[in-house]
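A note from the maintainers: we've had questions about how concatenated examples are separated. There is no special marker in the raw files; a new sequence line simply starts the next protein. For clarity in this README we add a label.
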Amino acid sequence: MEEIRLNKWLSEMGVCSRREADRLVEAGKVTVDGVVAVMGQKVSSDQRIVCDGRLVCGTETKKRPKPVWLVVNKPQGVVCTTSDKDRAENIVEMIQYPARVYPVGRLDKDSEGLILMTNQGDLVNKIMRSGNAHEKEYEVTVNKPLTEEFLEAMVSGVELKELNQTTRPCEILVTGIDTFRIVLTQGLNRQIRRMCETLGYRVLKLKRIRIMNIHLGNLKTGSFRRMTREEYEEMVRILEESGSSNLPFAKRQGR
């Protein structure tokens, strides 16, 4: 019987992302046939796998779950990980969806807005690959008036020494004295906050309003909805074409 890596199997079974699976394995929360799992372990469908106290597969249950895609408006203060290191409410607990779903990527605890949740690991991996340059749009409020120098630096790319990376060129739309919308094509850790801090600004509010073709719209904070068939099909089309697409040309709007 064919064996696959444990983190991939957990992802395909709709338990969590591969990254989250690795964290659960490291924490000793996954067992295979009664034995605590190890990183990189391979498993087969006839084994009994328990993740975080829940039976995932084995002779009792082998059927893969029906695909679920949710559009969620995450409030501030809610985290996107199920690890124990942060005692805050996590997004899985918040929505209390009847099927096992997990977030696609993250929004940090202090940020709010759009996050996708699913039980489909393969598409998650395509969305998460930063090289595919999928657009994510945010509304940002900072602590002082925007300057020309700040905007030009943000658009051109900011060197983040602590990450040893320079951000990709991006789009910015100025919406007020201290507010703007920004479209990114990469997902570095706390990227917008780090960019602003490097340039002497502090983010007061950060809200994601779009991922690729999926818009937050007027979805209420803390609520979720099912992704429409049209949204799903367009998302899949974008993912299929992303391998040959070029990075977007940097530009400024709204000035």
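[label: protein 2]
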Amino acid sequence: MKALIYESPETLVFRDAPDPLPTDGQQLIRVEAVGICGSDMHAYLGHDDRRPAPLILGHEAAGVIVGGPRDGERVTVNPLVTCGQCQACRTGHDNLCADRMIISMPPREGAFAQFITMRDENLVTIPEHVTSQMASLAEPIACGWHTVRLANERLGNKAQSALVIGGGAIGLGAALSLAAQGIADVTIVEPNALRRDYLNDRCGQTAIAPDQLTPDMQYDIVIDGVGYAATRQTASAQARPGGVIGHIGLGESAGGLDIRRMTLQEITFIGTYTYTAQDFRDTAQAIFDGRLGALDWTEQRPLCDGQSAFADIRAGRTAAPKIILQP
């Protein structure tokens, strides 16, 4: 098969790779759509020790099952594989499984390829009216869905306002998840003017520049989809007393939080990692039901042009929150 392979920092090569072979309980899937994630970008830049070269990146995938009794079935892929046996898995916190593995991280190759394999329980069937491009968004949006659920539960499901830091796919997915879970007053803060205009004009969002935030703008929930010291500082300042900060981003590991304010104002900080299997299924169903909107804010490019897509994202030349590659 052909695959887009990360070979060294800032170098992706489209070339031949071994065909994956399904084992018992797995399906062979012909990939039709796979999104570029921020974690793929970290790896591409050589900033992720968990993803050493050479490696096939990519984990936001949807496609068609090839062979067997489910031949021809269209599916979206939950890329997080867990043991199913530990306490975390048994209690519905499977995303915290100590043995969790995600495709695009050794020993599992990713989905920037023509084919992948995945076990049956990680596959969600796509209805006819939903495109593979839309269905591939289940993975990134599920990250925000999971964070919104946890934050809102902390507030007794009574949150009324939210600030989302970062207008990429994670941030936009969080904003859509907030609305779908009943929180209508949502603001996105996004520094890139090109993307900010896109969010306002194409996505129906309220997106502002960082310098438009004022101290009196306080929110029940603040979601940091970026994860840098500067964005955590913003989250600390804009969460209302008694509010919740939901932290998704993995930009850098330290700095930014105003612990004194968080303590004096009883602000809850929740770190969130991916999603549970149920969150993934709930997100996919929300896509299928149309509760997350038209999902027409992606840009499609062929997988063979992946190198240029990564370069454009890094340079800030893309307005769309998500580029989807098509093998």
